[in-house]
Structure formats: C-alpha cells, structure tokens
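Summary of Year 1 activities. Much of the first year was spent building the evaluation harness for sequence design. The harness presents a backbone, in tokenized form, and records the residue chosen at every position. We chose the following record to illustrate the format because it has been used consistently in internal testing since the harness was completed.
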C-alpha cells in the first residue's frame, strides 16, 4: 500500500468512547481529502464508514454512496445505540438522502428495514442502471466484506448465507469504473473468525487492488 502518492493513517480505538474515535477518523479523513487524495479506509467495524462519508459529503454535496453489505443496517437505533454497525447505513441515509444512497447485496435485516428500503428505493440493482445512476457524480464506495458468501470469505463478524460470488462483486465494481471515486472503505474483516486455512486476508488484498 506504500507509494510516493499514498499516506497511511492509523486510528486505534481501544476503550475510547465511540464519538471520540469517530471524530479522530473524521480528522484523518479531512487531511486526506484536503490533499486531494482518494480516501481509503480499512475496518474492522463498519461504523468507520460514517465519518469518512461525512467528510466526503462536506466536500462534495452531490456525493453518491454505494454500499455493498449483507445487512441493510437501516435501524434507527440498535438497542440504545444510535451509532453502531447496525445503524451505519441509516446514518448515511440521514446525511445524503434517499436519492444518493444505493445498498446492494443485502439479505439480512428486520421487516421494518426491508420495508424502508423498498419505500425509498434504496436497493438498486447491480446492472447498467447503477452505472447511469452514479455517472458524473462523486462516489463513495463502502464494501462490507460480508456481502460475499461465507464460502468465499468466512472471516467476518456476522456472516450471512446466500451471498455474492467474487465475480458478482467484480461486475458491480466494473459498473462504477467510470465514476469519480471520492473515497472508499473495506470493513468487517475479522481475523479471529478466520478459519486456520481461510483466505480472507488475501481476499481483502484482492479487493484493495
Ligand atoms: Mn454487514
């Protein structure tokens, strides 16, 4: 990942309150975007997407957000918590609005989340219409690695059966090839959940390239 044109920022969370961690990620994201570089975040917890999208949106008011995720993550709150991996797409929706958010690959969520996604038309199809929708606008791409089928990537915190194949994800990425990438992230890799012979680390590397 090291090159003369790339810089790495590392934000350790430890036991800090989540708001503090998010504001530190926001600060790091602001520096990257100020230098007119492409923001690229790696998780861990899917919530890291939120501060990155917030910063990208601050610079590009017409930002579109494409989320690949097994989960809708559209809950208003998860238990008592409004800032969680289970609410991250809801917070993004609150920020960018229904016309600027696409969620692909989701196969898990509550009845209410699926109803909301249907009502707002958030689950766009991974065909030519996605390319037309994203064309000419800055795009933020968030890939929760659990969008892949667990047979392809078991090492994630909340795996869901019936996921995408590697080739399907690549086909979606190909649709976005002409888009202006403002930032992206890869989240939810969980090494402790990785079987001894499992491939998730190299699979994440494949995505990164
Ligand atoms: Mn997920």
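For this record, the design step produced the sequence shown next.
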């Amino acid at each position: 990942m090291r090159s003369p044109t790339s810089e790495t920022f590392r934000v350790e969370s430890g036991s800090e309150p989540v708001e503090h961690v998010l504001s530190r990620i926001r600060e790091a994201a602001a520096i990257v975007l100020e230098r007119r570089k492409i923001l690229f975040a790696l998780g861990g917890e899917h919530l890291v997407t939120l501060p990155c999208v917030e910063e990208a949106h601050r610079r590009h008011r017409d930002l579109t957000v494409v989320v690949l995720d097994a989960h809708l993550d559209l809950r208003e709150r998860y238990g008592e918590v409004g800032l969680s991996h289970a609410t991250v797409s809801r917070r993004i929706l609150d920020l960018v609005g229904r016309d600027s958010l696409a969620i692909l690959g989701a196969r898990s969520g509550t009845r209410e989340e699926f109803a909301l996604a249907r009502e707002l038309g958030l689950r766009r199809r991974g065909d030519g219409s996605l390319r037309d929708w994203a064309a000419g606008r800055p795009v933020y791409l968030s890939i929760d690695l659990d969008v892949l089928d667990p047979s392809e990537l078991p090492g994630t915190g909340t795996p869901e059966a019936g996921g995408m194949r590697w080739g399907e994800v690549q086909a979606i990425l190909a649709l976005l090839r002409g888009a202006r990438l403002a930032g992206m992230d890869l989240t939810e890799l969980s090494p402790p959940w990785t079987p001894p012979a499992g491939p998730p680390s190299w699979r994440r590397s494949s995505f990164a390239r």
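The pocket of manganese (II) ion is lined by residues 46, 69-71, 144, 146, 158, 188 (CB under 6 Å). Quantitative recovery figures across the full test set are reported in Table 2.
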